[in-house]
Amino acid sequence: xxxxxxxxxxxxxxxxxxxxxxxxxxxxxxxxxxxxxxxxxxxxxxxxxxxxxxxxxxxxxxxxxxxxxxxxxxxxxxxxxxxxxxxxxxxxxxxxxxxxxxxxxxxxxxxxxxxxxxxxxxxxxxxxxxxxxxxxxxxxxxxxxxxxxxxxxxxxxxxxxxxxxxxxxxxxxxxxxxxxxxxxxxxxxxxxxxxxxxxxxxxxxxxxxxxxxxxxxxxxxxxxxxxxxxxxxxxxxxxxxxxxxxxxxxxxxxxxxxxxxxxxxxxxxxxxxxxxxxxxxxxxxxxxxxxxxxxxxxxxxxxxxxxxxxxxxxxxxxxxxxxxxxxxxxxxxxxxxxxxxxxxxxxxxxxxxxxxxxxxxxxxxxxxxxxxxxxxxxxxxxxxxxxxxxxxxxxxxxxxxxxxxxxxxxxxxxxxx
Length: 417
Ligand code: ADP
Ligand code: MG
Hints:
The protein is α/β, with parallel strands linked by helices. The protein has 17 helices and 13 strands. The chain has helices spanning 3-34, 37-50, 53-73, 81-86, 97-101, 118-129, 135-146, 179-183, 190-201, 229-238, 251-261, 272-283, 298-303, 315-320, 331-366, 379-396, 398-407; strands at 76-78, 92-96, 107-113, 156-160, 164-169, 172-177, 205-211, 214-222, 242-246, 265-267, 288-292, 306-310, 323-325. The chain has a 7-stranded mixed beta sheet with strand order 1-13-12-11-2-9-10, sandwiched between helices. A 6-stranded antiparallel beta sheet has the order 3-8-7-6-5-4. Helix 11 links the parallel strand 9 and strand 10. The longest helix is centred in the C-terminal third of the chain and has 36 residues, at 331-366. Mean pLDDT is 89; it is low at 410-417.
């Protein structure tokens, strides 16, 4: 149940006994004033008939159901009602880089052999990356296939999340990954560092491959930013949400990509549990949504107030998230937030009107106006008014559809236009 539904339930819980009490009081007062049991009974029944806890009870579940439906039709899946209600309240959107802001289909741009021959470098990279599911691994494998390079089976393999890969190939310990990983094993010389710097400032991610004591070479990969990432970030900013990039990649590459899409806050070089910690820090400043796709994002997705995973992401990311964007577009983050806001607004509207209806309807049914204006309501009209109020609540849901569609980025909500 959405938190707001619990409030509505509490209100309904108080509402029913109060209405019963009003009906009894109405009956008693008319008995005292009019001494006509038929008339007094009619008024008492009329109060019972017109009062409508259904509108209160319907307001939330129907809005949530419609919100879920509108979302689903547009590729936004809310796993629970809480996510649908909370998404509209977020202040900070922490967004993963690889695969979320960027396409996640990187390709190899540079191959710089150092101590090894180019083919040997690629062979070892192939052996290692064959076992990894990381998008960079796929890029390297594609490059090897293009150059007709293959490798023998690796003897031992280990994934180092947020850092790289390591294993034993032809009885030699080999590893590949980012500078942090290499530096934990050896000290790269100045020339290597210069190459790394140059590559990362071009927005490429340099991956180093090494075996015991020597650096074999660098393979740089680059990924393009998704077509709508920039618009999506602009939209989020307009909505008053602060976007923050969180990535395991190095700061230079991350900054180049962040600038391309208009993100000012970059947190780079974070390990998977570092992402989770960063989220906890960010939560001190407001409600945080994490948007990600990878295994390394899963802890952060769980820890954030709202976790949003891309449908193309890994199963564990999808499992850890509250919202899934099946179209894999960052624009849908804004759409999901707008949809949530529309739903919440709709619920509040419904509750407000249901309240007004009862405040006006109950005194009228009780015959409070009879001594002053002569206005009276027969139970039949009371029943009609009651049904009409439920009907109004349900038809008001259409507003969710139109409001969200009106404000959402052009690409999203196409199905509804
Ligand atoms: P992101 O947060 O951008 O999705 P990750 O946490 O998955 O990045 O990875 C962080 C860094 O670790 C990468 O930028 C890369 O340098 C290195 N890395 C991770 N996996 C691999 C791999 N299979 N091969 C080589 N390097 C890797
Ligand atoms: Mg990622």
